[in-house]
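QA checklist item 7 of 12: single-chain prediction sanity check.
[x] sequence parsed
[x] length recorded as 211
[x] structure emitted
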Amino acid sequence: MVRTLYEAKDGKFTWIDVVDPDKAELEAVARAYKLHPNSVEDCLEPTHLPKYERIRDVVFVILRAHDEDHVGECESVQQLTRKLAIFIGQNFIITIHRANMAFFTRFAARWTDGLRTGDEHPYAVLLALMGHVAESYEPPLAEGDRIMDRYEYTVFNDPRTPFDFREFYNYKRKIALIKKMLRMTLEVQQKIDVRELASLPDAGPRMQDLK
């Protein structure tokens, strides 16, 4: 499904969202916005990690947000997170994902309802979206802290209580993966060319807030 989430009245900014596209839909979007075919192929590949690259006049970004529906053990990034592919041009941003994501739906609604001066800009959407991706990891991190605190208390204060090593390992692994995703998301931010932000009001504070 291809949908327009926002289009400025002056026609200088458009936000296109693509959910679970078929080959024909992807090819149509690629032609309309002159996207590189290799990057388009990467859009739906589930294993890609966060990255930032420029191909001619278009920037291609991959982000990974925490999967709110994840349950059970966590052995890989793909089990814990959902991928979001993003294309950015001079006057457009295109977001592509395999399925609807609750955090993305909330973000899009908040962004369009609370537009501020300067928000009609591709990088305004990208920076705000990256912030929401980072925030998606707050609940599992808080849960992990509680679990680790419980185990520390058990070890030092109640050693007779059975110790679930499998659960302990699972949360330790999950926290390590979250730290990796946050670190790689920060690396994406650090690769953003400041020249791309020249026309974005309050670019400095926005970048600092995200960091």
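[x] summary fact logged: The longest helix spans residues 165-190.
[ ] second reviewer sign-off
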